[in-house]
Fold:
Amino acid sequence: MADLYRKTLESERRKLWGECRLKGLKPDTPQRLRIAEIDRLLAEHQAKKPAKKAAASSDGKAGG
Structure:
């Protein structure tokens, strides 16, 4: 199943990064701050993902 939350965040990040590169924006602009926030959200989301997979595999049937 597609991870729509991650895809949405990555899409927004690419859009903002392109805007920052095009305009030559400094690090303290709202766009750059949002990119940093998106990076943090993506890292948190990625950290949660393996925990869910481990829980799902332990609930599954034992092979044997």
